[in-house]
Specification:
The chain has about 200 residues and is α/β, with parallel strands linked by helices. It has a single domain, classed as TIM Barrel, CATH 3.20.20.70. The protein has an eight-stranded parallel beta sheet. Strand 4, helix 5 and strand 5 form a beta-alpha-beta unit. Helix 2 runs parallel beside helix 9. The longest helix is centred in the last third of the chain and has 14 residues. The protein is globular, with a radius of gyration of 16 Å.
């Protein structure tokens, strides 16, 4: 699957909440040049859907984050979202995504939530919020009991925590907004450092 392959290659999922004033095309260019082919745009602000439309021809695989209702999921897909991410598991969104063939990554935290996601046919899950709940330690334990699940830990993760996540066998990619703070040069440097910490070669 294209989205999963891109996540496995990048091992990073940058998360953007659009508040106005961002140079979206410049950001997309930096991500492409640094070998990060995906961007999660949250629906926390009204500008999120418009950003999905604006970047539709950017060459990035765009996802919608903070999808909390069926209506938001439909609007996001209509705006060009190629994958959907929720802070928690929304069964109606899971059903719609499966019908449309769109990857859906719901947020989970507890073993019960992981089991419910598996019952719905979902085996790639967002682990959220990661750092407040010692994400690396929990995911290491989950690798033993849920070997079929791969995780996208998100929430409070910063550069200094990446070495804790890098060796996890069930890690697909690390998500976060910290990657996109600052100007283009700052973002570029942060991506390169993150890739090094996750033991990936830099581009170029």
């Amino acid at each position: 699957m294209e989205v999963l392959d891109a996540l496995a290659k990048a091992r990073l999922l940058p998360l953007l909440t659009v508040r106005g004033g961002e140079d979206l095309r410049a950001l997309a260019q930096v991500l492409r040049e640094e070998g990060v082919g995906l961007l999660e745009i949250t629906l926390r602000t009204p500008q999120g859907l418009e950003a999905l439309r604006v970047l539709g021809d950017s060459g990035l695989l765009l996802g919608a984050g903070t999808v909390r209702s069926l209506e938001e999921a439909k609007a996001a897909m209509a705006a060009g979202a190629r994958f959907l991410v929720s802070p928690g598991l929304k069964e109606a969104v899971a059903c719609l995504a499966q019908e449309e063939g769109v990857p859906y990554f719901p947020g989970v935290l507890t073993p019960t939530e992981v089991e419910r996601a598996l019952e719905l046919g979902l085996s790639v899950l967002k682990f959220f919020p990661a750092e407040p709940f010692q994400g690396a330690q929990v995911l290491r334990a989950y690798a033993e009991v849920f070997p079929e699940v791969r995780f996208l830990p998100t929430g409070g993760i910063k550069e200094e925590q990446l070495p804790l996540y890098a060796p996890l066998p069930n890690l697909l990619a690390v998500g976060g907004s910290w990657l996109l703070a600052g100007d283009a040069a700052s973002i570029r440097g942060r991506i390169r450092r993150a890739k090094a910490l996750l033991r990936l070669p830099a581009q170029g």
